[in-house]
Amino acid sequence: MTPLTDRQGRFSPLKAATLALALLPAAVIAYWFFTRQLGPLPVKTALHLVGDWTIRLLVITLALTPLQRVLNYPKIALIRRMLGVTTFAYGLTHFLLYIVQSKFDLVFVVTEIVLRFYLTIGFVALIGLSLLAATSFDSAIRKLGKTWKTIHRLVYGIAVLGLLHYFIQSKIDVSPATLMAGFFILLMIYRSFISRRMALTPLVLAISAGLAGLLTALTEFAWYGLATGVDPWRIAQANLMVSFGLRPAIIVALVGLVPCGFLILRNAHSNGWFKLRKLTA
Ligand code: HEM
To answer: How many domains in the chain?
Structure first.
């Protein structure tokens, strides 16, 4: 199977569209970079933007299995490997930009990675991503057999390290990192239901959304309480006030309700409720 073909060797529009979409952020960042639209520190800005997309793509890749279940669309499995490898490519670019930012002083880069905890965990996460990318080929899957699954379960630990790296470097405002952590929590809740062989019904999805929102708020509370001097209770209260904009916990809960609403509508459609209403109207 090549990057653009399916298992039968036919051109796959789904894979082509996914690859184009996944590479779009990199193309836009490169365009901004070469047209000098990234401000006074273009390499640093590009490093941050590519880092953001590394973690986003990782979370999107993890979302594919639950999405496949909810949409009942087996073809989604075709793009999982491609998105995983693209995530690694973004992570590697992020690292290379760090080397460029450090003026190619490799001794400095290694020393910083050893001495700064957030860089150490970023590095371990990148090594993990490279291991997954290197073992994602058909031949590796065949050779590794059952071990392949064990190795690829590392992705969850890698995501946790990536998120921790994101939180630690975030300075005072951890909202974007909390949002990504919240989506990860939501996906882990789905995963726990799937591994118990439970179907993702609208009720299960609604419970997951509420629980993920709550755990996201708790994560944020714990981070502010333990790692910053900010009063965590003020942050917790802000979750209840719309005047502060939608906080990560609320966004996670709302996003979690989207698949739930989708399933309710789809069930209603297949039960013919819409037709019934038309007839009785
Ligand atoms: C060798 C590996 C890595 C190195 C050396 C590295 C280095 C850095 C540096 C220097 C920053 C900016 C910190 C600052 O300006 O204060 C950063 C930010 C970030 N990194 Fe990494 N990183 C690595 C791996 C990763 C990986 C594997 C991920 C994702 C899974 C990741 C995601 C991020 C994110 C999301 C940010 C924040 C971007 C933002 O502020 O918008 N990094 N990283």
So the answer is: 2
Helix then strand count (H, E) for the chain reads: 13, 0
Report the alpha-carbon distance of residue 80 to residue 162 in Å, rounded: 19
**Structural domain boundaries enclosing 141:** 1-169
Q: Which atom of ligand 1 is nearest to the CA of 54?
A: 29
Which of 87, 92, 66, 81 has the alpha carbon at shortest distance from 140? 81
Report the residue among 54, 121, 163, 171 best suited for mutation to probe ligand 1: largest number of ligand atoms under 8 A from its CB.
54
Predicted structure pTM score: 0.93
Q: Let me know whether 10 and 124 are in one domain.
A: yes
Query: Which residue has its alpha carbon closest to ligand 1 atom 19?
Result: 51
Query: Same domain, yes or no, for 268 and 157?
Result: no
Per-residue pLDDT reduced to its tens digit, 32-81? 999 999 999 999 999 999 999 999 999 999 999 999 988 888 889 889 99
Q: Is the CB of 52 under 6 A from ligand 1?
A: yes
- Determine which residue's CA is closest to atom 22 belonging to ligand 1: 122
